[in-house]
Design goal:
The chain has about 190 residues and is an alpha+beta fold. Helices cover about 55% and strands about 10% of the residues. α2 runs antiparallel to α7 and α4 packs antiparallel against α5. The two termini are about 15 Å apart. The N terminus and C terminus are likely disordered.
């Protein structure tokens, strides 16, 4: 049985003021429609369309990827400046005259490297990678049809399945994020 307890209400919290203290949601009320939806989504005749939707759902331009790109450009600029300064020394410029410029360029390079280490690489996932993930999950329809709790748990974990019950609308929002890299969100009826 799936259930939720809103817990103690916080004084003045508008989000909790309309939420029921307890929600009773029978597992069967969710599993059957969820099974039909997932079975259809991953059925052989719909698989290519599902893969396209999962790949398209990626947000390639995010604040993290933008910060990564800026740090990468700063690192490239600092390294380029260091190379020019080293070339000047090789050409005969007095090294003592360039100490301050070299130190500044090295500090900029170190800061950019540290920033790059703190941001994730913006890497999208390809159609082939999604197909491989789906192959690894197995026949989703038959796993759901058999209803083996251990297999369902593995499947739902592999899909990164999340369900959020909306008590007011009496709906369940389902999100699928295979391996945490791609996602699709569908909102269905009660």
């Amino acid at each position: 049985m799936l259930g939720a307890n809103a817990g103690p209400r916080l004084p003045g919290s508008p989000a909790l003021s309309t939420h029921p203290n307890n929600v009773y949601l029978p597992e069967a009320a969710v599993l059957e429609p969820l099974g039909k939806w997932l079975g259809g989504l991953f059925a052989p005749e719909n698989r290519d369309r599902t893969v396209v939707a999962l790949v398209a759902s990626q947000k390639k331009i995010t604040a993290t990827s933008a910060a990564h790109d800026v740090a990468k450009k700063r690192l490239e600029a600092a390294e380029s400046r260091l190379k020019r300064l080293q070339a000047a020394i090789e050409a005969g410029v007095e090294p003592a005259a360039l100490v301050e410029a070299i130190n500044e360029a090295q500090a900029q390079r170190s800061a950019a490297r540290a920033e790059l280490n703190g941001t994730s690489t913006p890497d999208g996932i390809t159609d082939a990678e999604v197909h491989a993930m789906l192959d690894a999950l197995g026949d989703v329809g038959s796993i759901i049809g058999r209803g083996d709790p251990a297999k369902l748990e593995d499947l739902f974990a592999g899909l990164g399945l999340e369900m959020l019950y909306n008590a007011e609308g009496r709906t369940v929002d389902v999100t699928v994020r295979p391996v945490g890299k791609v996602s699709a969100r569908v909102r269905g009826g009660t």
